[in-house]
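hiii, so i know i said id send this last week but things got crazy w the move. better late than never?? heres the sequnce for the chain we talked about at the cafe, plus the structure i predicted for it. fair warning i was half asleep when i ran it
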Amino acid sequence: MGLLPLREDPIDRDLALPKPYNMEPEDCYTIGEIAAKFAIAESTVYSHIRKYSIPIRQIGRFVYAPKSEIDHLYKDVVKK
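okay and structure toks below
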C-alpha cells in the first residue's frame, strides 16, 4: 500500500477558517437593542440576521448578536 501523493497547490487555510466572534453579552447587542438603536422592527432584524448569516446566541430569553457584525451591517443607517 503506497502513500497518497502530495497536493501541488497547498490549501489556503486563511480563507477556509470562519471568523472568530466573541459572543459574550458585553460584546453583543440584544435584538431589542438593535431595533431601538437603528429604528427598525425586530422582525426585520431577525430577517437580516438570517439573510447575512450573522451568528446569534440565546441566553435565557435574550438573543445576542455580535456588535461588530451589526455595526458593519447597519453602518449607513441614520441613528435616532
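btw Helices lie at 13-16, 31-38, 42-51, 67-73. thought thatd interest u
miss u guys!!
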